[in-house]
Amino acid sequence: MNIPIRQQIYNDAEKWIYQAGELIREQIHDNYQIDTKSNVNDLVTEVDRSTEKFFAEKIREKYPSHFIVGEEGYGDKVDSLDGTIWIIDPIDGTMNFVHQKRNFAISIGIYHNGVGEIGFIYNVMDDVLYTGIRGEGAYRNSIKLPPLSDQVNIETSIVALNSSLACENSRINEKKVQQLIKDCRGSRSYGSAALEFAYVAEGIVDAYLTMRLAPWDFAAGLILVNEVGGVTIQANGQPVNILEKNTILTTNKQIQEKLLDNYIDLK
Ligand code: IPD
Ligand code: CA
Ligand code: CA
Ligand code: CA
Q1: Which atom of ligand 1 is closest in space to residue 42's alpha carbon?
Q2: How far apart are CA 148 and CA 171, in angstroms?
Q3: Which terms does the record give in the GO molecular function aspect (predicted)?
Q4: What's the confidence (pLDDT) of residue 215?
């Protein structure tokens, strides 16, 4: 993607993210409609939908040739990585949004011919914007993030994962996950995949492991983590498919091998 065009897209996306964040904050105490999706704990609200619609309208007006992949159905049916694609999660961490009124993010990854060009993860209530620009680095509120530490090992690492992975489950050997929780310095579960990616990029969490993420959950985070020298792969070590659901391990490279070899045993 040529640099002036990328800069223009960056500027527009950043402006729209701040506008959408303001709209979300204005509605945070409203009596908005809450529905469920695949199960009773899978929540979606009117605010998720209106936020995605806001982005879809802005993008279609300014960039009619671009494609949109979004969680809430305002996007396009996209089955090829050709062209420019905006991959949008209007609210990542809807359960946190509803129950905690914090700890959720807007996540937007912009890809051109399959290459991640720009990633945005906006922690709406903290007003912290993480950005990643291919080849330029990752930033937290415009301050450049340093490369990830080369001094991390399992014993000194903080690992984010869904606590359900440590319970009996059909996807992963829970005994190994329990061992990981014992062996690492601390485990965390933030409830927003996008923020978990941002924390890995920031180096305040050393790895994030999860069994099923959609493109809108990881599209932005993958770009950020790349830019600080981290790596994002499927939990079986294979590359991530951008347009599909994937298991995900995003991590400091120092512990990638140990995690895959000693602690991740897929069923
Ligand atoms: C969810 C959150 C959650 C993760 C789920 C996602 P949503 O996204 O990121 O932390 O465990 O897999 O679906 O539905 O709140 O956008
Ligand atoms: Ca959802
Ligand atoms: Ca999500
Ligand atoms: Ca969402």
Answers
A1: 14
A2: 29
A3: inositol monophosphate 1-phosphatase activity; metal ion binding
A4: 98
DSSP 176-187: HHHHHHHHSSEE
Q: How far is the CA of 211 from the centre of ligand 3 (A)?
A: 13
Give the span between the Cα atoms of 53 and 38, in whole angstroms.
21
Task: Name the residues around ion ligand 4, CB cutoff 5 A.
Answer: 71, 89, 91
Q: Strand, helix or coil at 143?
A: strand
CATH number of 154-263: 3.40.190.80
Identify the CA nearest to 237 among candidates 245, 220, 253, 249.
249
What residue spans define the domains of the chain?
3-144, 154-263
Q: What are 132-139's contacts with CB under 8 Å, separation 24+?
A: 132/201, 132/220, 132/223, 132/224, 132/225, 132/226, 132/227, 133/6, 133/10, 133/223, 133/227, 134/223, 134/226, 134/227, 136/227, 137/227, 137/228, 138/201, 138/223, 138/224, 138/225, 138/227, 138/228
Query: Averaged over 102-117, what is the pLDDT?
Result: 98
- pLDDT single digits (tens) 228-242: 999 999 999 999 999
91 is in an annotated binding site: yes
pLDDT tens figures, 146-200: 999 999 999 999 999 999 999 999 999 999 999 999 999 999 999 999 999 999 9
CATH superfamily of 3-144: Fructose-1,6-Bisphosphatase, subunit A, domain 1 (3.30.540.10)
- At 204 the pLDDT is 98
Distances (CA, A) of 20 to 23, 106, 141, 182, 211: 5, 9, 17, 40, 29
